[in-house]
Design goal:
The structure holds two protein chains of two kinds.
Chain A (H helix, E strand, L loop, with lengths): L3 H6 L5 H7 L3 E2 L2 H4 L11 E3 L4 H13 L4 E4 L16 E4 L6 E5 L4 E5 L4 H9 L3 E2 L12 H7 L6 H4 L2 H4 E7 L5 E5 L24 E8 L1 E2 L3 E9 L2 H13 L6 E5 L1 H4 L3 H4 L7 E9 L1 H17 L4 E5 L1 H11 L13 E7 L5 H11 L4 E5 L4 E7 L7 H14 L2 E6 L2 H4 L12 H11 L15
Chain B lengths: L2 H11 L4 E2 L2 H5 L14 E3 L4 H14 L3 E4 L16 E4 L6 E5 L4 E4 L5 H8 L4 E2 L12 H7 L6 H4 L6 E7 L5 E5 L10 H5 L8 E8 L1 E2 L3 E9 L2 H13 L6 E6 H11 L9 E9 L4 H14 L2 E6 L3 H12 L1 H4 L6 E4 L9 H15 L3 E6 L4 E8 L6 H18 L18 H4 L2 H14 L31 H7 L4
Parallel strand pairs in B: 2-4, 3-4
Antiparallel strand pairs in B: 1-2, 5-6, 6-10, 7-11, 8-9, 8-10, 12-14, 12-15, 13-14, 13-17, 16-18, 17-18
Helix pairs in contact in B: 1-3, 8-10, 9-11, 13-14
Classes of the chains: A alpha+beta, B alpha+beta.
Chain lengths: 450, 485
């Protein structure tokens, strides 16, 4: 870190980085501008051709004490606060490809720069899928999705990303390639360092390769769309489904405005309606029973209407529904995107609080996990800083964990931040230091300034 | 143990709960594995605060310490080095809260695994992970080992069912990792704490996830004349997109021992038996069970049988769960291995296991979680015969080498502990281990919490080193306690 000043003087960038990357290094301002991090333009951009290149780039940057920000497809680069400065952005997109799809073992090993779309297509050949319906389904990378902890509604049936991640190869700041976990479905050998990567936002190391649990495509799928008068009824229905022994794959709750963003749901939208969407899989009779069960639980919770989707319709609809969470369908320069995590039974209260604070915000909830995504339109500055501060204050008092996933770059630096719930800050810092002693990897932007 | 230190321990937990009498200590000197080492003292605290006070006292006095649950572990994780203090969680055994709407429970670490499911059964809920020792083992130990169980094929291991834990750090601080919500700020410290074998701190409360009990479970048994047929049936079931709740296999030797012990109705001339649970909604479940049975038949099963009722199913499972105990009929001692391989490599690795048995002139029975590719070869030996144990350990190491050579892992659920620490280099490079050691120091800068576990010493995998008797710590082990990375 002490050397950072000398680096800044050494533009064009350090020779060793140039040696390592040759023509895969960008240093001109107009080349670097598109790689900005929350508005902060890096001094150089490294485009490694593979993990070996990436290791060299990290090692060179870290020898200089440079601040490095790791980037996959760049779908989640608007997360505040912006870094104070960025020396190098390392983009992992070229570190891609399926390493080994062990279909009989329900595992796949992939390079971190592989996109979710490419992974889906590879698994589809064996009638399997990675049961993580993260947003930016086509473009986001596996590494970025893991680093962001961007699990979707399928976590109801299949667990969150932590549960689907069996092992990893990490390139640490010093360029060392470190393996943890295993390539088999079960291993307790050594510390599960890979679990730390989920939600690490690139601050512990570059996710160069991962082994993931995959699932067989269900024999058949069906879906349910139910309309409710308010978010409380829709959430209650979703929780009744989650607490039942129907074992549905996923349920989500959306307000009317977000429903209107999704072509597949548009026909079902109506004024002042809240919608519950559910996806279920199994054999034919099993799925029929699930549909019956969901239908009666929805009706008991006050559904105004319930209709079902056939196999191809639910798969098509889910392509859109998964994008409703996490800001994927919302222009990054016009919306603030929040994620609020509460106890499942507080979901309705979170929805009410969000709608109260920002009446024209669009919300999607995964009540099973008590997770609410709030998309707040900022055009015409309809909400002042106070609206955010008072909403954050209410979250804090209720014991909810609120986070900003994305804000427009031009206001990122001054955007109010929610307070961080009590956290083992000393341990979080010590873990960061264990992986990245020089504080090279995007320091200071995680909760509590880690 | 010097007098002032003992008195200080007593003043924290009370005289009755600070044990230093050698006879009392002896019962804490082993677990269910093959290692041995008596602690210098055992304390049985009554609260998180008492645990934190003991940890701070140890820390200030330069004494190492470790947590211990029921001592059912198989890798020596709960065995103390010379001079160490065992902190038993036996008195922290209350279920503190059951939150049905949010499907979670808050429990103390000494709560027995099976007691959670029993406590929530009336709500149609259960705690899913079910190690064979579930009637005795504790949640604290399950967290330390990231325990699996018979039903983790479909539902995952302990890590998949834990939301949070209050821990006493090796510095004696009380902090929460995770919590009641599915996400909490910062790194997933809980994720790395689970399975850390008591080396990163002591769990003093756990928030566990509760899951709905399936409406119906069908238990099937398929009998094969060859191990290869049985393993190819396993692959076919998974390949058909069916993920059973449990998918277990036993070979002939294991079946014979179990049948003589439990009388579960297992044919003793079968080369391999699969036990399969399919579970879920009653509707459509018969079709799934039928598909499983016909896949078994298509791959050479000479017979398949569906348990007619719950008591028949319970008897079949009782048989499977009694496998380790049943070995007593055949052998004075057994040493159980825990390697994992890709399911598709089962036939090759089983042949190699049998070959290893012949090479070392030891009988090896196999029971395993076939669905997970998690082997449990039971290597039989007699500790009274000179060299028998050493040969068993060497044979076990060869089995682990075979697992790693096939892209697998040296432990699926039993942990590394003392037993397999010298086998870690089979699976991990010096760089891998160095980062693990740095992580350990992030939690435990003085390496005072359960030292000598997980990390390799200067010995080779399979070299015998079970001499941790109080006061005679081997030099190499003492060095390892400092973890040279």
């Amino acid at each position: 870190m002490k050397n950072r000043r000398t680096l800044l003087k050494a533009i064009p960038f350090d020779l060793s980085l140039r040696d390592a990357l040759g023509d895969k290094l960008r240093v001109l301002p107009d080349e670097c501008a598109p790689y900005h991090v929350c508005g902060a333009v890096p001094k150089s951009v490294a485009l490694p051709r593979g993990p070996a290149d990436a290791a060299l780039a990290l090692k060179a940057a870290s020898a200089e004490g440079a601040v490095v920000v790791l980037r996959g497809a760049g779908t989640k680069m608007h997360r505040p606060p912006p870094p104070r400065s960025v020396d190098v952005v390392i983009e992992t997109l070229a570190c891609k490809g399926i390493v080994d799809h062990a279909a009989a073992d329900l595992t796949v090993t992939v390079n971190g720069g592989t996109t979710l779309g490419a992974l889906d297509r590879a698994l589809e050949k064996a009638n399997q899928f990675w049961p993580c319906d993260a947003p930016f389904a086509e473009s986001a990378t596996i590494g970025g999705t893991i680093a962001a902890g961007a699990a979707g509604a399928l976590r109801q049936r299949f667990g969150s990303i932590r549960d689907l991640l069996l092992g990893a190869r990490i390139i640490t700041a010093d360029g060392a390639a470190v393996r943890c976990g295993a390539r088999v479905v079960k291993s307790v050998a050594g510390y599960d360092l890979h679990k730390l990567l989920v939600g690490s936002w690139g601050t512990l190391g570059l996710i160069s390769e991962v082994t993931l649990k995959v699932a067989p495509m269900p024999e058949t799928e069906r879906g349910v769309i139910a309309r409710f008068a308010n978010g409380a009824h829709a959430s209650a229905a979703a929780l009744a489904i989650a607490g039942s022994n129907l074992f549905v794959m996923a349920t989500a709750v959306h307000d009317e405005e977000s429903v209107r963003r999704v072509g597949a749901l548009l026909a079902h939208a109506s004024r002042d309606c809240w919608m519950l969407t559910a996806r279920c899989g199994g054999n034919r009779r099993n799925v029929e029973r699930q549909i019956d069960g969901i239908t009666s639980l929805c009706r008991a919770a006050g559904a105004q209407s319930v209709s079902d989707l056939d196999s191809s319709a639910v798969r098509r609809a889910w392509v859109d529904i998964r994008e409703l969470a996490g800001g994927a369908l919302y222009a990054a320069d016009r919306f603030a995107v929040l994620k609020i995590v509460a106890l499942p039974h507080d979901t309705a209260k979170v929805l009410e609080t969000a709608k109260d604070a920002w009446p024209n915000a669009e919300v999607t909830a995964h009540p099973f996990g008590g997770i609410v995504f709030v998309h707040v339109p900022l055009e015409g500055l309809s909400y002042g800083v106070e609206a955010f501060e008072s909403a954050f204050d209410r979250c804090e008092r209720a014991g909810w964990y609120a986070r900003l996933l994305s804000v427009p770059d031009q206001v990122a630096a001054s955007f109010p931040q929610p307070s961080v719930p009590p956290a083992p800050v000393k341990l979080l810092r010590a873990v960061k230091t264990a992986f990245d002693p020089g504080g090279v990897l995007d320091p200071g932007r995680l909760p509590a300034g880690v | 143990m010097n007098e002032p230190f003992t008195r200080a321990l007593q003043s924290i937990v009370g005289r009755r709960y600070a044990l230093t009498d050698p006879d009392a200590l002896r019962s804490y000197a082993y677990d269910a594995g093959v290692d041995f080492g008596a602690p210098a003292a055992v304390v049985v605290p009554a609260s998180t605060d008492e645990i934190a006070a003991v940890v701070r006292l140890c820390s200030a006095s330069g004494v190492h310490f470790l947590p211990r649950g029921a001592g059912t572990g198989l890798s020596g994780g709960a065995i103390a080095h010379a001079g160490g203090v065992v902190i038993s969680t036996a008195r922290l055994n209350s279920i503190l809260e059951i939150d049905v709407p949010n499907r979670l429970a808050v429990v103390e670490p000494g709560v027995i695994n099976a007691d959670i499911s029993a406590a929530v059964a009336s709500h149609g809920l259960r705690y899913v992970p079910d190690p064979s020792s579930m009637a005795a083992c504790t949640i604290g130990g399950n967290i330390a080992e990231n325990s699996g169980g018979l039903h983790c094929l479909a539902h995952g291991v302990t890590a998949n069912h834990l939301l949070g834990a209050e821990i006493v750090t090796p510095d004696g601080e009380i902090v929460w990792l995770g919590g009641k919500t599915v996400e909490t700020p910062g790194y997933d410290l809980l994720g790395v704490f689970i399975g850390s074998e008591g080396t990163l701190g002591i769990a003093t409360k756990a928030v566990v996830r509760l899951s709905p009990v399936p409406e119906r479970t069908i238990t099937l048994m398929a009998v094969f004349n060859s191990v290869d047929d049985a393993t190819s049936a396993v692959s076919a079931i998974i390949g058909a997109g069916i993920v059973p709740g449990a998918l277990e296999m036993m070979d002939r030797l294991a079946t014979q021992a179990i049948e003589a012990f439990v009388h579960a109705g297992f044919p003793t001339d079968a080369e391999a038996i699969l036990i399969i649970d399919v579970e879920g909604l009653a509707d459509g479940l018969d079709a799934t069970a039928g598909a499983v049975a016909s896949l078994c038949e298509r791959h050479g099963a000479r017979s398949t049988r569906t348990a007619a009722n719950a008591s028949e199913a319970a008897l079949i499972w009782k048989g499977r769960k009694s496998a380790f105990g049943a070995m007593g009929r055949y052998s004075a001692d057994y040493y159980v291995q825990d390697g994992v391989i890709p399911r598709s490599k089962l036939p090759d690795v089983l042949r190699e296991v049998n070959e290893i048995g012949r090479r070392y002139d030891l009988r090896i029975a196999n029971v395993f979680h076939a669905g997970d590719g998690n082997l449990h070869p039971l290597i039989m030996f007699d500790h009274r015969k000179a060299g028998d144990l050493d040969r068993a350990i060497a044979a076990g190491a060869d089995i682990l080498r075979a697992c790693v050579a096939q892209g697998g892992s040296i432990s699926g659920e039993h942990g590394i502990g003392l037993e397999k620490r010298d086998c870690m280099p089979l699976q991990f490079s010096a760089d891998d281990l160095a980062l693990m050691a740095r992580l350990r120091r992030a939690f435990d800068p003085r390496v005072a919490c359960n030292p000598g576990k997980i990390f390799p010493t200067s010995r080779r995998c399979g070299e015998s080193a079970r001499t941790l008797e109080s006061g005679v710590l081997p030099a190499a082990t003492a060095a390892a306690a400092g973890e040279p990375f």
